[in-house]
Amino acid sequence: MHILRVANFVSPTSGGIKTALRAWGQHYQDLGHRASLIIPGPGPEISEEAQGTVYRVPATPVPGTGYSLMWSRVGLSRLMDAIAPDALEVSDRATTRWMGRWAARRGIGSVMLSHENMTGILVRRTPMPVGVAHLSADLVNRLSAHDYDAIVCPSRFAAEEFHRNGIPAHVVPLGVDLDTFSPTGDLQDYAPPAPGQRIQIVHCGRLSPEKNPGLSIETVRELLRRGHDVQMTVFGEGPMLPRLVRRAQNLPVVFHSYITDRAELAARMGRADVAIAPGPLETFGLAALEVLAVGVPAVCCDEGALQEVVGPGGVVKPSTPEAFADGVEELLARPGAHLLAREQAETFSWRTSAERMLAVHQDVRATLAT
Question: Model's pTM, two decimal places?
Answer without folding.
Answer: 0.90
